[in-house]
Fold:
Amino acid sequence: MNLTRFAKARHATKSFDPARKIPAAVIDELKELIRFSPSSVNSQPWHFVVAQSDAARARVAKSMQPGYAYNEAKVTRASHVLVLCVRKDMDEAHLNAVLEQEAADGRFASDEAKTVQQNTRGFYVNLHRERDDLSAWMEKQAFLALGTLLIGASTLEIDACPMEGFDAKALDEELGLAERGLTSIVVVGLGYRSADDFNAKLPKSRLSAEAVFTELV
Amino acid sequence: MNLTRFAKARHATKSFDPARKIPAAVIDELKELIRFSPSSVNSQPWHFVVAQSDAARARVAKSMQPGYAYNEAKVTRASHVLVLCVRKDMDEAHLNAVLEQEAADGRFASDEAKTVQQNTRGFYVNLHRERDDLSAWMEKQAFLALGTLLIGASTLEIDACPMEGFDAKALDEELGLAERGLTSIVVVGLGYRSADDFNAKLPKSRLSAEAVFTELV
Structure:
């Protein structure tokens, strides 16, 4: 099957219908899809906060004030809101948790295979630590999950609005993320567009294939 | 429809069957899917180099030597290789190209709407310029495209191996990317796994839902 028609059909929803709620089974599917997103060396440096109730979404919406007020209604009118977070550090506890999960899932036929995996992941983590871009590297992995989420929402006929416009520091404080070693990077409104969503009526625009592809000879 | 089964079925292919080639129509579908990936404020700060011939893939494979020799065969044995690149700068020429494409595609009912879009995009570009994370921001957008590509390949029954392990500076030089204002960030082998791809036989592993989700009250 082909996802291109879903990629073309989706858009960043600018106005949600607050009366329509995503069924629990559909949210569960989206969560499972995100959880199975790929990440470099299976590092999974992410965490996802799901806000469903009016009160929970209101807590997230506070981080749109004062500088990003135009994003507030996309949180308060959405059915569900997902806050994508990354770890502040790729610490030993997390690396061990991933390794032990892989062991429990049966990926290692021998202790040697387990050590190889540990060393490979450690090599890349240290490489990014030395380059001083560990945070940026972890954020990129979360964007892999975001890409998976956005196309996945489209296939489930769910509208989405990913937002980088919010006060991350304020949201981290409101949700107690900092003390959990996490920081918020993207807020995604999920639900169903309202009749007044102007973006749904506009044609999609992308640079031409000639502009974005080079065929190497 | 539901992508979760594709997310669970895919894996990072460690060994490709060099005899099997992806049909041109399938590659065209993947390219169209990537081209329609979302990006923050529709910035599309990316470029994709497609290497198909043995000679073209050999040029890409050079960047795996000497430090990442274990990735070399994933390039030389793949059917196609995609090099994901980002711009070195989000300059006025690119911003204008995106704006004029949007105008040509009919997204602006008025000059005012066009100016609003130009200002919104400019605000976020300047925000990241001030934060000194413009490159990291552009790379994150490319990872949105990578997430879309990996799940999209799975739905088309194409195996993929995304690699961050290569000498980006050497590859930029080999492909003449620097003088085009681009830099390579990920190399993706695409094709069909061979019978000796050990990773295809291992169970997939992810952290538990309890570990990666918080339900906000």
Notes: The radius of gyration of chain A is 19 Å. The domain at 4-89+136-212 of chain A is CATH 3.40.109.10 (NADH Oxidase).
